[in-house]
Amino acid sequence: MNDAGGNGSAEDLARAAAIAIERYSLAYSTAAGPFHALKSVSLTIPQGRTVGLVGESGSGKTSLAWAIMRYLPPNAVEGPGVIRLGGENLIEKSPAEIASIRGRRISMVFQDPSASLNPTLRIGDQISEVLMRHQKLTQKEALEEAAAALERTGIHRPRDIMRRYPHQASGGEKQRVVLATAFACGPECIIFDEPTTALDVITARQILDLFVRLRDDTGVSALYISHDLALVSRIAHEVAVIREGEIVERGRPAELFSSPKRDYTRALIAAAPRPENRLVTSRIAPAAEPLLSVRKANVRFGQPTRLQRLLGQTRAPVDALKSVAITVRPGEILGIVGESGSGKSTLARVIAGLQDFTGEIGFADRRFARRPDLDRSYRRSVQIIFQHPDASLNPRQRVKTILSRPLRLYDLARRGEIEDRVASLLSRVLLPANFSTRYPHQLSGGEKQRVAIARAFAAEPKLVVCDEITSSLDVSVQASIARLLVEIQAATRAACIFITHDLNLVRQLAHRIGVMNRGELVDMFETGDVNAADRHPYTRELMEAVAVPPWG
Amino acid sequence: MRDLLRHPTGVVGASLLLVIFLAVVAGPSLAPYDPQSFHPQARLQGPSATFWLGTDQFGRDVLSRILHGARATVLFGLGATLAGVSVGALIGITAGVAGRWIDSLIMRLLDGMLAVPDLLFTLLIVTVIGSSTGNAMLAVAVAFSPGMARIARSAVLSVRTRDFVQAAIARGESRAYIIGAEVLPNTIGPVIVEASIRVSFAIMLGATLGFLGLGAQPPSTEWGLMIAEARQFMFRNPWCVAAPGLAIAIAALGFNLFGDALRDILDPRGRR
Amino acid sequence: MNAAYFVRRLVAVLLVLLTVSLAVFVITMILPGNAAVMILGEYATEDQLRALSEELGLDRPWHVQYLGWLGGMLAGDWGMSMRLSLPVTTVIGEAFWRSAALAAGALATVSIIAIPLGVAAAMRRGTGLDLGIGLFAYLGTAVPEFVTATLLLIFLAGPSSGLFPAGGYIPADKSLPGFLYHMVLPVATLSLILTAHIVRQVRSEMSDVLGSDYVRAARLKGLSEREVILRHALPNALAPAVAVISLDVGYLLGGILVVEEVFAWPGLGRLIIYALQNRDLPVIQAATLTLAATYALSNLVSDIVIAVLDPRVRYA
């Protein structure tokens, strides 16, 4: 399983290796003893080929990238093994030689372009400095070459972008800058560390396509690190699955998907949401009386006050929601998808009573025209669960306090019953009863999210708004949380608004799907009609951008 | 608490504080001599076997005076800070919770008060109401309030936007509950950190006032006052100045390091 | 750079000074009940009190007093010093420049020493150098100015060493070397403390920045360590450091009070203490406002420096 070269074709074997890692081990010495990040790992990246490295957080995939770039912290202890670049052992090289290699022969593309660009330096300078350092160009020559490199990444007016500072560029533009910098000196190999994870779906797809085009044009070797097996399988010639510092399986993407040999690989494949795996089985009568109906909801941020207008500070206000109208039927799961800035979170907050709005909210047979009108009965019936598990629980309260609060507030249990009710809530979200004495910092991300779900359902609501509740979790945890939500929803027959950017996930569990773009609801359809002819062009764009798992 | 011990600055700070508190609590009983008694034969001597830190111009034992003065100096710092923190936190939390125009008004007033340097503010007040330890404490408390109010306000503002507070608002919790159960417990952290560091400033301010004759008055053995009294003879026996100076530094350093370690522990982002 | 930003900050400074003037006025004129009693002391006779009250206009309603006083200040009429029989403007004017000389000396010294020390400490985290610099920085912020000043006096100006004068002042036009000679110890005291504060901030911010993603990205581009530090790390560390340091300036302005007192340097600080001890009301008020204005303006300057260093603030 760990043989170098894996299941490559004869042609691959004949290629020289751009990077060859042979039985390399890495450990970090910590106060709690040595932590073995990599255990005798062997991996070969043939010239001109892309190797995908797939693993979850803590698997060691990032450590491998640092090891290749020779950027290890002082407490790193390297075991036996070699890392060869074009035949030369990088481990034996001096710091000066490594500095000369970085950026020139191996470069790296990071996950978050906002964090990896210097906020106080112009964009153009950040590309040109690499050229000036390695190719000894003058500043003028380097800037010209930088403009050419940017143009190759699809930016049409490179000089404009080069004059700007990073905070004045969009996420997609910044990632193109990072790509341009990485390709600038014509390296032998580029390491990509989750380059599209921090980007919106459509932008991510564009960057992915750009990556494929550039690597085909230049013939560069690439190590593509990701947690997304489906995505990697579309662009890599070979995929290696890493878990807890060991490579558990490797092979060509088609074979890996069609006949995975290891349980872990199977689990990873299964965890990625696939639209065909419907999680909900109930059907909702299309003509059912709506539980919630929102009409002409408008939210405007940044309306200048009189004083500001007097001082001439007129910054254009932002319309986060433009005349949005949606309905939710009882017991239905309504999915809302959109990219960042689409207004989906604002909509969630309006419905949950956290955001002032103009328009009307109709719930059961009541009508509310303003936020202050939303009374306790409404607030009990409509609950919200947030995205970040770390932020949604009060760090100073124990789990039992957190869960008993809705029971007390809405008089749902007598004093003596509270402890039992808390225990039953915990068991409903598959957590042991003794968790009730724990503090949030003693729980994992997934466990915290379960508590948040329990808290929402403790109030026995009729509608639960889920604002990207799986987006901050690991892939395997995401699947279990999604399943849990569907189970509870089916058991309690509460309606649910499930907001996400993950189109595959929403197709798994929603009855109907709404699509939002720039504050407007542009499309609404039954899940089964996702590919119908009358879909909005933006919906189609989203569908095309999403990487659907190709096999299985 | 265990985290504190793992922090080098915390360990040093806590050890210094232990020494200081020992002096405050048990100082007078540990002192070998009466701080006011003269030993005319042994004036302005350096450290010796009989007088571990030497004697001053009247032959009084410096070590005993320092041990006695711990109370005056340190309790001054603690008292003034406690008063300033209480008032300041109250104002800051009110501003942060009330929001809108009340908040703006309070902030403008605070900005004005913060524009006057602490020492000057304190001197102004003390001149007006008279020089004594109590008045000096009041003056320092008043000078500290705007700064503490600022800290408390920003802590409240940052907690207000956190998701668990939003969840409480969405549930329809009453204002009182939200402030009491969700906001306040999470605001205390930054306030306590700032308060610990401020104690060190209060100690230094108190000593400065004592030095200028505007704080503690004789026959108090407050450390700043000791240095003022020893000034004329400082060339003959530098220990009269160095010893209380060191004592002040140890006290201020202890609280400073302790506060810094607290901040590192409570900061969720964790500075590396 | 945004002109509107600058104007807004200037307006804020003026508002702040207005508030300060009100506070100073209230504290000095209103609180004591009868300012005349405070000035003349408890043993003044009725006639003396009445005469002074009339002279100062203390029988008018307080807001009238305040506006009259404020109007005078703005028009440049700062009144007459009660003790020195000189116009307050003259007295404060001379004293201000003498204090400014000390401040300038301290700032110059500090600019050369403090930032490199902070950077060096951050780059060699955990080594002996870092610990040593850290210790110095912590001590410097824990020792009050009067202690540092007195210790410097003992060791450098005492009869045994006699390297520097034990205080005093010689006007620059009389003897420049003498002027500078007397400046050394007070400037040294201020510099020590300023350096400690600045080193602490720079060390802390620099540490953070050195661990940031963009510094890592710069290193992984193969840039030399020197380029990484100067182009990528330092500019990002300085902006937040400046923000915090400007808060310390207020604390240090208080330090000038003490330093001038210990070294008998006749600057603004010493003047204030003298005025406070002698209840010279007009001088107290005007000097306090001057110091507050200096502090507020220094904050404005630091805001501008931050805007220069951080384009996110410039092009918000």
Looking at this protein, list some descriptive labels.
heterotrimer; B: 272 residues; mainly alpha; 10 helices; 0% strand; C: 316 residues; 13 helices; globular
* Separation, N- and C-terminal Cα atoms of chain B: 19 Å
- The computed structural class of chain B is mainly alpha
Helix segment tally of chain A: 21
Side by side, the strands of the main sheet of chain A go: 7-8-9-3-10-11
Short note summarizing the structure:
The complex is a heterotrimer of chains A (552), B (272) and C (316). Chain B is built from ten helices and no strands. The interface between B and C is large, with 42 and 55 residues.
What does this structure look like?
The complex is a heterotrimer of chains A (552), B (272) and C (316). The relative contact order of chain A is 0.11. Chain A is an alpha/beta fold and 552 residues long. The radius of gyration of chain A is 26 Å and the shape is globular. Among the domains of chain A are: 116-186; 292-391 and 461-545, Rossmann fold, CATH 3.40.50.300. The two termini of chain A are 22 Å apart. Chain B contains ten helices and no strands. The radius of gyration of chain B is 22 Å and the shape is elongated. In chain C, helix 1 packs antiparallel against helix 12. Chain C is globular and about 85 Å long. The relative contact order of chain C is 0.13. Chains in contact: A-B, A-C, B-C. The interface between B and C is large, with 42 and 55 residues.
Topology:
The complex is a heterotrimer of chains A (552), B (272) and C (316).
Chain A: H1 10-14, E1 17-30, E2 33-46, E3 50-54, H2 61-69, E4 76-78, E5 82-85, E6 88-89, H3 95-101, E7 106-109, H4 113-116, H5 123-135, H6 139-152, H7 158-163, H8 171-183, E8 189-193, H9 201-218, E9 221-226, H10 229-235, E10 238-243, E11 246-251, H11 253-258, H12 263-271, E12 292-301, H13 306-310, E13 318-328, E14 333-337, H14 344-351, E15 358-363, E16 366-368, H15 376-381, E17 382-385, H16 399-409, H17 418-428, H18 445-458, E18 463-467, H19 475-492, E19 495-500, H20 503-509, E20 512-517, E21 520-526, H21 537-545
Parallel strand pairs in A: 3-9, 3-10, 7-8, 8-9, 14-19, 14-20, 17-18, 18-19
Antiparallel strand pairs in A: 1-2, 1-4, 1-5, 5-6, 10-11, 12-13, 12-15, 15-16, 20-21
Chain B: H1 2-6, H2 8-30, H3 62-98, H4 100-114, H5 118-129, H6 133-160, H7 163-171, H8 175-212, H9 223-230, H10 239-266
Chain C: H1 3-30, H2 35-40, H3 46-56, H4 62-75, H5 88-123, H6 128-142, H7 145-157, H8 176-210, H9 213-220, H10 225-263, H11 268-277, H12 281-309, H13 311-314
Helix pairs in contact in C: 1-12, 5-6, 5-8, 5-12, 6-8, 7-8, 7-10, 8-10, 9-10, 10-11, 10-12, 11-12
